Amino acid sequence: MTSRKAAWGQLALAAALGAVGGFGQAPYDLPLILLMALAGVVWLYRKRTGAWSAAWLGLAFGTGYFVHVLRWLVSPFMVEPERYGWIAPFALVSLSLFMAAYWALAFGVARRISRHSWPLILCLPLVELMRAYAFTGFGWGGPSQALVGVVSGQALAWIGPYGLSMAMMVVAVVLAAPNAMTLPRRAGQGLVLVLAIAALTLPVPLPDTGADETSRPVVRLIQPNIPQREKWQPDLIETHFRRQLDLTANPPQGDMPAPALVIWSETAIPWSLDLAQSALDEIAVAAGDATVVLGVGRREANRFYNSLAVLDRQGQAAQIYDKHHLVPFGEYMPLGDLAAKFGIYGLAAGEGFGYSKGPGAKVLDLGPLGLALPLICYEAVFAQDVNAAPERPAFLIQITNDAWFGDGAGPKQHLAQARMRAIEQGLPLARAANTGISAMIDPHGRVAASLALNNAGFVDARLPAPLAPTLYSRTGDLPLAVLLVAGLVLGFGIGRRKRADLI
Question: pTM higher than 0.85, yes or no?
Answer without folding.
Answer: yes
